[in-house]
Write a structure and sequence with these properties.
The protein is mostly helical and 210 residues long. The chain is 67% helix and 0% strand. The radius of gyration is 19 Å and the shape is elongated.
Amino acid sequence: MSILLKLASALNRRDEEPNIALAKSITKSKDRKAVKELVDGLSSKSKDIQNDCIKVLYETGATAPNLIADYHKVFIEQLQSKNNRMQWGAMTALHSITSEIPETIYKLLPKILNAAEKGSVITKDYAVSIIIELAKKEKYNPKVFPFLNEFLLKAATNQLPMYAENAMVVINDKNKGQFIKSLQLRLNDFEKETKRKRVEKVIAKLSATA
């Protein structure tokens, strides 16, 4: 039985539960054949199948990144898709495998950053998450921090508090000063006080450990 017949669209479902359940089943059984079929489904003429396949793939990657890591080139290609769902779905998948193959993802960073610059808010969110994941590695922290800093300076104010909060885990004595400075430069950009206060809280926490 084709794995595609278990997708939400094949079951005439508009919710994601069948796709999530399928991902759990694939993860539990370590079904690499099913993963391959899902990857092939990304090139389907049906957008519904494309969308379902990328959903199952990144859900699988979230708990078993080793099952989808070999397909990083396919996900990179999908960043150029005209289907926005595929674009941010591929970025999500790449994020899920960053800790599995950090060296490979680091080499692909130019393409990831290019897609983020042109992409949707969700695409940008996961690109930032990829950078943060890489920055957790001592080897890559100083190399990727400039990219993180650039996102901080250019991010929409709705996204900036989340970026700042998530990035705290990769801030060290070498980059703390620049990180705080960049956040301080953005404080006057906020229209919503709640958003500004979240960033101020990050600044305060880091300043207290200076």
